[in-house]
Structure formats: structure tokens, C-alpha cells
Amino acid sequence: MGIHRLNHAVLYVRDLDRSVAFYRDVLGFRPVPMTPDGFRGAAFLQAADSTNDHDLGLFEIGSAAGPSPAGRSAVGLYHLAWELDTLDELAATAERLAAANALVGTSDHGTTKSLYGRDPDGLEFEIVWIVPADLLDDAALAARKRIGRLDLDRERARYGGQTRGGLGISIPA
What is the pLDDT, as a whole number, of residue 172? Predict the structure, then answer.
């Protein structure tokens, strides 16, 4: 079975309009007009630079829905991770998440530089920049075994703010 990427994820949300606004305004997703006629309570979105038909499906289940117990009292999905092309984009995304009070953490995983956010329903996600294969060194590879504090200014000085991430790893070189 030759799986090579995640095509889309589907999330249950309390308020469809609120969730669409968050993913559109904060993360840059755009609505895709593909909801079947007569079907209410669903929206489909595509990430700005995606080649997928859609990347996210949102299904409204109403305001009475409780928070997801996944990871606390039930098994379930912890988070999805979306990849950005540059560290400058990662920094701009950090600012938008912080302005929306949705940035819950940052991490340096050596080969990846990550932001962690929470949507209006408390569902967590990760936004990541991946060090290109030709820039991987022993220090970055060794740092995969720890979770460090992300210093975006230092990483932009080291790799360049406009260096395209993931080349040779998630994007063919």
C-alpha cells in the first residue's frame, strides 16, 4: 500500500461558522464549494498552497457537544500537523495564532520547528517547518531525541527565513 500523504481530515465542531472563520482567517484555508445540495452543517476547506481536493472537512454537531476526551479519558487523535514552506511563514503564523489566542506552545524537535495551536473547540493542531535534507547535520538529527524551546529568530538566522523546508524529505529534491 503506497500511502504518500494525508489527503484530508474531518473534524466534528460545535459551531460551523465559527470554525470556518478560524481556519480561514487564522490559518488561511479557503472554503471549497462541494457540500452536497440540501446537506447542512458541513464545510470543506483547502489549505492555501494545497493540491488536494480539500484538506479539511468540518461537520457541525451543535453547541451542546462536550470537549473531546481524547488523551485524557479516551483514546483518540491528539493532533494533525500541517507543513509550511518557510520559517518566515512559520513566524507569521505564530503571530496570527497568538493574536487569535490560539497559540498554545512551540517546540524545536531538531529536524522540525513547530507551533502548537488550538481551534475554537479545543482541538489541537501543529504547524511545522521541516529542515531540508541537504541542511540536516548531526546536531539537528541528535536533537530529534528531545523537545527544545523554539527560537524562531535563531532558526531564521541559521537556515534563512525564505529557505524552503522539507526539500528531499516531504518534497522531492
Answer: 81
